[in-house]
Amino acid sequence: MLLLPLIAGLLSLGLAVALPADAGRSSSVTTVSIVKGHGYDIEEHQVQTSDGYILTMHRIPYSKNTGPDGRRPVAFLMHGLLCSSSDWVLAGPHSGLAYLLSEQGFDVWMGNARGNTYSKKHATKSPLLQPFWNFEWHDIGIYDLPAMIDNVIYKTGVENVTYIGHSQGTTSFFVLNTNIPRFKSRFSSAHLLAPVAWMEHMESPLATVGGPLLGQPNAFVEVFGSAEFLPNTQLMNMFGALMCHDQAISQAICTNTLFLLGGWGSPYINETLLPEIMATTPAGCSVNQIFHYLQEYNSGYFRQFDYGSSRNKKEYGIKTPPEYDVESIDVPTYLYYSDNDYFASLIDVDKLRYYMDPKALRSAYRLPEEKWNHIDFLWGLNVKEILYDRVIDDILNA
Ligand SMILES: *[C@@H]1O[C@H](CO)[C@@H](O)[C@H](O)[C@H]1NC(C)=O
Ligand SMILES: *[C@@H]1O[C@H](CO)[C@@H](O)[C@H](O)[C@H]1NC(C)=O
């Protein structure tokens, strides 16, 4: 989440033309090319949501070591804000969760939310025009996840899938399960990395600056309309340098997109991966996704988008947005969280643990590494030994 630059970007609208999120990036690095490069089979599947978005799913049907025979349970992986299916594969077979699951005999399906690099299509709307971007993570939860999971179940014939989400991929899981009860039997278990529901204690300095302004009910949405969030390289470099001055970490990390995802202040990032991370991230989102998170930071609620009281009444029938009833979720759920996560703070994760039904919440694992941050859950050094071995154990024993 890049809030300072976002403010600056909004204020300078009309003056500065933001560079497209993928400007200057080599478009040849994709989930497909990365996975193929490691010698695994990969399939691409297109799925249309009930509101017309055309999403790309990536599938590693089986590992070259385990082969295609036998019934394989399905693992469904959902990425976070500004990310994509590439998250799970770019670290390679030793540390990429998608390969590790594949080696365990899973049929691995990776989602891509509307608006990201692989899901920028719609039956009737052009991504070049504003109406395409009129969505936020609530829609990912109620449209994208259902369409993708139904497609997986249809194509594979399995009864249920194991859900693994990171960051916004956990938020959308909560949205789905609190809004569409028919899915609860579709998940054998859920494994939520850096879970984001309540956000009042988000420690990102970007949020403390951006939140009060941009987290107001419907701030800017009516003024500027929904738009693609286009990080501007110059602004990112500038604010990256400012941010990292305080955190005293290397410029190499600060001036790239990592800091935008909450990747500062960790000694764990595997620098070998930087070129691949930068080639695939940021993967695009709507500004509304960021506004909705900032509203949570401001209000202290985990609830639907706040349009302001009069439009809320039209949308929801009441003046305040409905809260997500996390207590009602009964999918066996495992949380994995850490002390140095600027987006999923300890206090907010504790609140989530408190509200979840104790019968559903099977475990909440606080990583022993004190400096582990939001994106180390994907790309930290030794992430396999520190985190994924445990996640896989939990999945197999769920
Ligand atoms: C998930 O599906 C498997 C096989 O299809 C079945 O044995 C199992 O009971 C299901 N689990 C849940 C929680 O529904
Ligand atoms: C860092 O990433 C590289 C490239 O995927 C990988 O070979 C290496 O094992 C990783 N290092 C650690 C300590 O996780």
What would your notes on this structure say?
The chain is of the alpha/beta class and 398 residues long. The protein has one domain: Rossmann fold. Helices cover 37% and strands 12% of the residues. It is built from 16 helices and nine strands. Helix 14 links the parallel strand 8 and strand 9. It is globular and about 60 Å long. The protein starts with a helix and ends with a helix. The structure holds 2-acetamido-2-deoxy-beta-D-glucopyranose (2 copies). One 2-acetamido-2-deoxy-beta-D-glucopyranose binds next to helix 3. The site of one 2-acetamido-2-deoxy-beta-D-glucopyranose has 5 residues, from loops.
Q: Helices, strands, pairings?
A:
Layout: H1 3-11, H2 31-37, E1 43-48, E2 53-60, E3 74-78, H3 92-95, H4 97-103, E4 107-110, E5 121-122, H5 137-156, E6 161-166, H6 168-179, E7 187-193, H7 205-214, H8 221-224, H9 233-247, H10 251-254, H11 274-280, H12 287-299, H13 309-316, E8 333-337, H14 346-355, E9 361-366, H15 376-379, H16 383-397
The structure holds 2-acetamido-2-deoxy-beta-D-glucopyranose (2 copies).
Residues 158-160, 185, 188 line the site of one 2-acetamido-2-deoxy-beta-D-glucopyranose (NAG).
Put the structure in a nutshell:
The protein is α/β, with parallel strands linked by helices. It has a single domain (23-397), classed as Rossmann fold, CATH 3.40.50.1820.
CATH superfamily: Alpha/Beta hydrolase fold, catalytic domain
Sheet-strand content, in percent, reads 5-15%
| Count of discrete domains | 1
Helix content: 25-40%
Q: How is the CATH topology named?
A: Rossmann fold
Tally of DSSP β-strands: 9
Signal peptide: 1-18
Pfam families: Abhydro_lipase
Active site: 167, 341, 374
Protein name: Lipase
